[in-house]
Amino acid sequence: MSKTEAMASAVPAEDWSGWRRWGDSDSVDFPSVIGSGYARSDAPGKARVALEVRPQHMNRFGNMHGGFAAGFADHAYFIALWAMGREDQMAALTIDLSMQYLGLGKRGLTMIADVELLKETGKMLFLRMTIAQGDGLIAASTATLRKVIVAK
């Protein structure tokens, strides 16, 4: 199994019909801290990435840690590219990522990141996302990614 396949298995889960599972439970690298979840793309340049917030994602006050939210956002941009069929850019580099925290993330609830590819140039990808739990937004983000050169 390739590293991309380990990160993002294409086997849909029963409770997530139409979604693709991502994550590698046997991994010991940074993505294992994030966990695993589900992703789907229903329109060109758009994807949704889902993750359940777990106890290890919480701060000492019982809310989702802001640093975890930023790490998830960075990871979710790449999972979204995978869901959009852009496996060729899974190794792109994050040049810039900004976060705006809009509410408190809670444990046990699924976060849904709605990701949009705003623009693509020869060398760059410009993306944005909103992250929601339940009916409320908890964060928004923008990112600029440096594309990797794909051999033809």
UniProtKB/TrEMBL annotation:
Single GO MF annotation: fatty acyl-CoA hydrolase activity
Alphabetized UniProt keyword annotations: Hydrolase
Domain Thioesterase, chain residue ranges per copy: 61-137
InterPro entries according to UniProt: ACOT13 (IPR039298), HotDog_dom_sf (IPR029069), PAAI_dom (IPR003736), Thioestr_dom (IPR006683)
Signal peptide: none
Family: Belongs to the thioesterase PaaI family.
Annotated PANTHER family: ACYL-COENZYME A THIOESTERASE 13, THIOESTERASE SUPERFAMILY MEMBER-RELATED
Protein's name according to its UniProt entry: Thioesterase domain-containing protein
